[in-house]
Amino acid sequence: MNTNENENENEDEDEHTNGNGNGNGIPGIPRASGAAPISELLAAAAAQALPVVRGIGDDQLADRTPCAEYDVRALVNHLIHVLVNFQALAARKDVDFGTEPEYMVGDWRRRFGEETGALVTAWAAPGAEEGTAGAMNLPARTVGHMVLGDLTVHAWDLARATGQGFAPEPSVIEEILPALADMAPMARAGGVFGEPVPVAAGASAFDQVLAVTGRDPRWSR
């Protein structure tokens, strides 16, 4: 989820985080009373990401993105892989972020839509937010925050790279800002986040999300 994507160095998820409660220094952010289920937040995030991916032109696939390691094609491929793996994590299955299959074949825009739908379904399953998930035994809701952050921030990356607008769902940003801030120190240590970018006092919550993950909200092509 970052400008320094190093999932192959992390056994699981876009492994960004730190904290307590599971024996490995990773924070667990329990679902607060009245908080929306991860599946509902993912559905909202997907609704904003889908038009961006569908709006990518074939002639833009080699364009650079705010993630320096990825061009547009590679970032879409990576994001589809994230969607596939976090479906498995919701079901407590093993995943491999070290090797990314080739997803950019056939109708990859349709594939992206199918995988976002499958992701929402996976996290809506009974028990998906309970207990722990992944090789690091993170609290399941923390794992949900990871993919929610990836889907939202990478959608912005792709929108900026291809000259599209992007307006995230406010409820999603409200949910992920404190979660990503808690994850940030270990995420940076693992090369998953870049160094934080200074933003002006009074910056929007989404600009703060971008900044904490190492992105400059003013980035342009």
Can you put this structure into words, describing what you see?
By secondary structure, the protein is mostly helical. It has a single domain, classed as Four Helix Bundle (Hemerythrin (Met), subunit A), CATH 1.20.120. The protein is 47% helix and 2% strand. The protein is built from six helices and two strands. A two-stranded antiparallel sheet has the order 1-2. Strand 1 and strand 2 form a beta hairpin. Helix 2 packs antiparallel against helix 4. The longest helix has 22 residues. The protein is globular. The N terminus is likely disordered.
Features:
single chain, 221 residues, mainly alpha, Four Helix Bundle (Hemerythrin (Met), subunit A), two-stranded antiparallel sheet, 6 helices, 2 strands, 47% helix, 2% strand, globular, disordered N terminus
In brief:
It is built from six helices and two strands. With 221 residues, it is mainly alpha-helical.
